[in-house]
Amino acid sequence: MQTIEALAKEKGIEPEVVIQAMEEAVLTASRKYYKNDDEELKAKFNPENGQIELFAVKTIVEEVTAPGKEISIAEAKSIYGEDAEVEVGYQIEFPKRTDVLGRIAAQTAKQVIFQKVREAERENVFAEYHQRVGEVMNGLVKRFEQGDIIVEVGRVEAILPRKEQSRAESYAQGDRVRAVIRIVGKSAKGPQIVLSRTDPALLIKLFEQEVPEIYDGTVMIRGAVREAGDRAKVAVFSRERDVDPVGACVGMKGTRVQAIIRELRGEKIDIVDYSDDPVQFVMNALSPAKVQRVTIVDDKEKVMEVVVEDSQLSLAIGKKGQNVRLAAKLTGWRIDIKSEEEKRKEVEAQFGALEASAEPEADPAAPIEGETPKADS
User: Fold this and answer.
1) pLDDT exceeds cutoff 80 at 355
2) Residue 78: strand, helix, or coil
């Protein structure tokens, strides 16, 4: 019993789970040894002597049709006496030896116990963590497996897959890592908890930790997008007129946002004002570029045309199109950026096409070919 309690404590499960696993293990081993499908076997843990006892269970019947599972009422009375209270339907347990099971049976029992204990552990992990998806966890880098990082979080292991790692980061064994819980599964093998360092939820949680106004609900994050390791955009909104949402997130001399940038290993973060007006929101989202004008091309398909000064074009598009791509993700609109020069040439081309397609109007006084002009009467 002490061993059972020690194992249960070590694995963080109930002793009853271990006892149940042991009973099932002895039952499995016994079926392999006795090889009698007609018999109904039952294993029971005896807390007084710490032994798993094995029984063959037989049901009392009027007429026996399956000798391995049934016993006649007459035979039952001959065993217990005529005065014994035995009726049809009652079950009698006949003890069977377990000391004859041998080494192979013990090995089978061991495997069954390990499997049951692992299953119980996994159920516990799922029950504890599946409601914590989106939370930020602190852990230690334990080992590396083909590019994936195995992280020790409390008493359990979690995995930080290669695709959920920021390309700007690298870790060594024993390093502390802060990541967001992305998925908690019930997979048959390997860690169940999948962590992420690239998910926008990590950015949101870091802002909640660093900015008291976000934590208490005065300032709200209305959207966050990332290209992990390079750049991120966060849209913020204040529920109080006196509170500047962008200023609150940046902090005095940028202290608050700098703490988040350090945690994300130098990832650039643009904090922009959220607006219910899509045109204004797109203009804000393209920050730090200054926008000249915005036109909604297709309201249904959510397409906008944005015109910027020639000098602002590269800034608006960003490195490899990153700025406009993140702005489009943040706002949910497809953004077509043009410089003033491009727009002017486009308009000129349209006017030229219109002029070329316009035919000269016919003179009503001119005679039609082949017809003699008539004199006025």
Assistant:
1) no
2) helix
